[in-house]
């Protein structure tokens, strides 16, 4: 009975993650915090396409705070970034401070240039499962020219734009929906979590012109092969 209730809790947690409010089609900079290996950066456009990637080293051991700020400010100015998504992993708090300093720097630059204030907001996003996605075959198909380590921040940015569309690409068990999730019956949990994903996708609906193959495959009545055919047709012929 306790196991059944635990699975129910995990399913409810997953539902809350998938149905989180989307930021919508905005240009987003994703920051995947790191200390020794640096902060990985990716800028995605309003449709989720990767525009630019970089790695900055504001924390230990290099502590290149000013260099990181100017590199990020240049990316923001070049691509018109208006939202910053920060992963909640190691060094997240320190990276959040970097983002706050970046917003101040951009406001100062705008004032000096005599331009109107370009409001940029920052949001901390759950990065659970981002590394699993980065190394997945699906990520390789979506971002073949992007290094594995730089796919994480792109995923973090997209999660802020549309949590459901991005998280649906990851095995629900890898999203980290609760403590001790590996101690319950795995087949029962997989069934419950898959049902939640399908329910959420069909409740919200998808845009045929932008939905990924993983998202389309979750639509009731569409198989993986039909979803793949839709994407191929869209790539060849343009929007429906």
Q: What is the CA-based Rg, rounded? A: 19 Å
* Mean pLDDT figure: 92
Please give the alpha-carbon distance between the first and last residues: 48 Å
Strand order of the main beta sheet, please? 3-2-1-4-5
Main β sheet profile:
5 strands, mixed
**Beta-strand percentage?**
5-15%
SS class: alpha/beta
Low-confidence stretches: none
Oligomer: single chain
Number of helices: 10
Query: What is the count of β-strands?
Result: 5
Order of helices and strands: HEEEHEHEHHHHHHH
Percent of residues in helices:
40-55%
Which word captures the global form? globular
Write up this protein:
It is globular and about 60 Å long. It is of the alpha/beta class and 240 residues long. The mean pLDDT is 92. Strands 3-2-1-4-5 form a five-stranded mixed sheet, sandwiched between helices. It has helices at 2-18, 65-79, 92-113, 130-134, 137-142, 148-161, 163-167, 186-204, 213-216, 224-237, and strands spanning 28-32, 39-44, 50-56, 83-87, 121-125. It is 50% helix and 12% strand. The protein has ten helices and five strands. 35% of the residues are buried. Helix 1 packs parallel to helix 8 (186-204) and helix 2 (65-79) crosses helix 3.
